[in-house]
Amino acid sequence: ESRLPGFATHQVGVAGAVVDESNGKVLVVQDRNKTKNAWKFPGGLSDPGENIGATAVREVFEETGVRSEFRSLLSIRQQHNHPGAFGMSDMYIICRLSPLTYDINFCTQECLRCEWLDLTELAKTKETTPITSRIARLLLRGLELGFDNIDLTMEELPAVYSGMFYQLYHRQLPPTLKS
Amino acid sequence: ESRLPGFATHQVGVAGAVVDESNGKVLVVQDRNKTKNAWKFPGGLSDPGENIGATAVREVFEETGVRSEFRSLLSIRQQHNHPGAFGMSDMYIICRLSPLTYDINFCTQECLRCEWLDLTELAKTKETTPITSRIARLLLRGLELGFDNIDLTMEELPAVYSGMFYQLYHRQLPPTLKS
Fold first, then answer.
1. What is the ipTM of this complex?
2. Which residues of A touch B164 (CB under 8 A)?
3. Radius of gyration (Cα) for chain A, nearest Å?
4. What confidence tens digit (pLDDT) does each residue in A53-89 have?
5. How many CB pairs under 8 A join A and B?
6. Strands B10-20 and B89-99, how do they pair?
């Protein structure tokens, strides 16, 4: 945790997979400005100082009109020389969210379509990205065996020197092993 | 995965927990320039364009002289206004590594001490940071129940538009569910 002074090298993007556990559907969008219409999870770039979960919830609401709450972190992608990132590297994080509302009111500037789609269909369709397809299969496994099999849970812990708090994500530990 | 052009907001630091499964020991260091001497995992900032696992392996070797190989991603910490980060946010990632060599030849400029320490001792001692202590307990659980209980495994997948590859980390899926 010690460091020499560095500089920011990564932009951080966050997507939210809002899963309706009552019917096995997940909220997906198709971008307006892409040549290939592929289903994906709503998301976007973190604002400076914004927590991962807050970005996911905000972006899902801005794109789809659906309100949700953060549950866990599912996956991380690191990509260098990302076409949209102008030489920066890109950290793309996918979170699992639970819906608080269900009515879709999507942003027509950003999205062409927005639907609650069956996870089984999302896991099968070719009209999606490799990463979305992979996460759909991960979520199906979570629905079947319990989300504790696929989740990284979040906790806030105090920083040693500053007295501030940070967010730590890892596999759930039994309460007796936490401190 | 769509984005408006952004800018880099995060520095990425990576630490490597090198676990010797034959005896339950882990490689830890104490920084030379800290007031509190706390055991922690060796690590440092990613170079531009460097993969997470490569940073962990490189930093472990530079600090300790131990060669290792990447096994999995264990934990992520997000911290804003990090004291060493000058207003940037900080993404700190802890990886699990396996040792390829065992002899310690540590960097005396960076480190005061370097040892193979029992994970049980690291999990108990007060001479460590909260995050190191937590990860020690996570690793003990991995030793006991199998590391597949705590790991996020890495795979390379092709990017849709650029034809380049990216690294995706998530909980292991059975091979039949991967594609």
1. 0.88
2. 79, 81
3. 17
4. 999 999 999 999 999 999 999 999 998 876 665 678 9
5. 224
6. parallel
